Amino acid sequence: MFGPAATIAFVPYRDDFTDAETAGFAGWFYRVVGDAPAGAVLVLSGGGYPDVSHGGRTKMFRPHNHELAGLLRGGRLRGLDELARYSFATWCTGEATRAGDDTGRGSAGER
Question: Which InterPro entries is this protein grouped with (predicted)?
Answer without folding.
Answer: RraA/RraA-like, RraA/RraA-like_sf
